[in-house]
Amino acid sequence: MDIYEIGIYALTFVFIGFVIYRYLDQAKKLSVATQEKVEIAKATGRFEPLSLYPYIDPKICIGSGACVSACPEKDVLGIMNGTGTLINTTSCIGHGACFQACPVDAISLRIGTEKRGVELPHVKPNYETNVEGIFIAGELGGMGLIKNSIEQGIQAVIAAKKRVDIQKSSHEKALDLVIIGAGPAGIGASLKAKELGLNYLVLEQESLGGTVFTYPRGKVVMTHPVELPFHGPVKLVNTNKQELLELWESLRIKYDLKINENTKVNSIENKESHFVLNINEGSPLDALTVILAIGRRGTPRKLNVPGELSTKVAYRLLDAEDIKGERILVVGGGDSAVESALLLMGENEVFLSYRKNAFARIKAQNDEQIQRAISEKQLSVLFSSEVLEIGEDEIKLTQNGTGLSIPNIDRVYIFAGGELPTEFLKNAGIEMELAVNKIVKEH
Ligand SMILES: Cc1cc2nc3c(=O)[nH]c(=O)nc-3n(C[C@H](O)[C@H](O)[C@H](O)COP(=O)(O)OP(=O)(O)OC[C@H]3O[C@@H](n4cnc5c(N)ncnc54)[C@H](O)[C@@H]3O)c2cc1C
């Protein structure tokens, strides 16, 4: 070997050493950054999942980072010490993109943990509950996403139809099927019910569209196209709320879907041959079968203060970009309240009333933005405050025991969480189970 060759080997050796050093150095920095994020997530209550989450098997994971890049939400997953880890797990909405992206199948999708179990209704493979004739579709059954919910709505109708065919003679005047909820699952179910010629009705406590319209962000991600009865495939991969709402409205008109909005089902009585549904307004309805497509958000919690029935009060924010030059009060301290206040503040004068003395459990990104907005005086946050009365000319509040009034408010948005449907389900006789590490999707 001559001196020239020795030089080449030495340089190659140094180069490889440098590459390995850089790689290990970067991996170490990444681990430290992820570790910090995990600690913040734990301290702020975002680490422990609320519902669906990816479980990473450390024995299989090779730390490729494919799951981190594939996740459409931010910082749900990260890489630490060469393997995948959960960070802000409360932000997982179950896209399942991580599950698909993992090159070694180390991810399964699960619901509930030892620390935070999730109560789910017991559902058979044909979507029927323990109460014969009551079916469940969509997020209420545990599996989220628009596409999954639509598909489950369709499958539940196919199963309900079989039961209608058996029961039909027992009560001819009853509706064949009542679908409760007009979110993606209810819409999918109504199209299928129409296609199968069922005498059906959809009852929706608010308006067409479901949960998607209760969160402030405009962007909606549907990672795969979905096949709708009558209509065929829908390919809205990267869409927004407006486009989605237009699609639902066009389907409703085109196929004359029977959807009664502003109709809340308060309870379901089982009369053996049929069900009686008690609703907020009007006479009870008789139905041979029922599909619960009510999601998991429940009914928006009211403040129960005088003046809350005013038309200036809303529980969801639509078309934020069209609201300009107004004085707005946002009530609440969760992600929906904070995101709404941030969206509205540029063009409007925004006040945010929150009963606690600091934000907790909101997404890291929202926390950063709201803290910046507060310091730049882009909006006024009233911590430790509660609304007492919503008047025409002023909103009365109390802050740390002292009375307070905000005059000339044009709109009030209330994001005080939801009353979970657990009691409603139990009263209908539906058995619930506590899901702990329940696998809903695995390879
Ligand atoms: C922040 C966030 C972002 C998300 N982003 C996406 C996304 O980008 N892409 C995606 O695919 N999914 C997304 N999801 C998930 C998606 O919104 C849900 O999985 C989907 O809406 C579930 O549909 P559903 O029909 O089962 O229930 P829902 O959409 O919750 O609809 C249930 C309907 O039932 C009604 N209802 C409830 N109780 C009653 C009653 N007693 N009487 C009458 N009506 C009743 C409700 O008013 C509601 O309209 C997101 C979720 C969140 C929280």
Describe this structure in words.
With 443 residues, the chain is α/β, with parallel strands linked by helices. It has 3 domains: 3-116, Alpha-Beta Plaits, CATH 3.30.70.20; 119-300 and 421-441, FAD/NAD(P)-binding domain (3-Layer(bba) Sandwich); 313-416, 3-Layer(bba) Sandwich (FAD/NAD(P)-binding domain). It has 9 helices and 28 strands. It has helices at residues 3-43, 66-70, 97-101, 146-167, 184-195, 241-254, 335-345, 364-375, 422-427, and strands spanning 52-56, 77-80, 83-86, 107-111, 118-121, 134-136, 175-180, 200-203, 219-221, 226-228, 232-234, 238-240, 259-260, 265-270, 275-279, 285-292, 299-300, 313-314, 327-331, 349-353, 380-382, 385-390, 394-399, 402-407, 411-414, 418-419, 432-435, 438-441. The strands form 9 sheets. Strands 6, 7, 8, 13, 14, 15 and 16 form a 7-stranded mixed sheet that branches. It has a 5-stranded parallel sheet with strand order 18-25-19-20-21, covered by helices on one side. A 3-stranded antiparallel sheet has the order 1-4-28, with no helix packed on it. The protein is globular, with a radius of gyration of 26 Å. The mean pLDDT is 90. Flavin-adenine dinucleotide is lined by residues 93, 138-140, 144-147, 149, 180-186, 203-206, 210-212, 215, 220-222, 264-265, 293-295, 297, 299, 421.
